[in-house]
Amino acid sequence: MTRTESEETAVRRAVCPGSFDPITNGHLDIIARAAKLYDEVYVAVMINKSKQGLFAVEERIDLIRQVTGEYGNVRVESFHGLLVDFCKQRDIPAIVKGLRAVSDFDYELQMAQMNNGLSGVETLFVPTNPTYSFLSSSLVKEVAAWGGDVSHLVPPAVLSVLRERLPRP
What we know:
Number of strands: 5
CATH topology: Rossmann fold
Order of helices and strands: HEHEHEHEHEHH
Strand order of the largest sheet: 1-2-3
């Protein structure tokens, strides 16, 4: 099967969505892996007005831009509403999600099926690096708030801001 000229020049896009409050090394691993597979990777930072995060959306975007700066094909934007609408507006046919455990799969499969049913957007599941299989932003914030060492769990720029933001016990 031969590809047409337009298929060969089409830009392959994907999105890695999340709240990223804050971005962790686990998130960064999934973004980096997606950046190797796609021409353009959007990191979509979810705006949830009903939740008060540790970091404002603008701060999260800035941190993500700092730690993904080495990847020339990663764009960081905020979004609210349906992820499939974000995808439609940017002609993104694929969502890339990391899976830490079977419990993630149950929820993510439902989301993937709903997103596909709504718009035809596909979801690709990437198994998390075992080093980060337990990692979540919530856990990082909790450990850091109690003075625990999270330096191996977040990029240095995030660690610096976490230390400023969270008072030591």
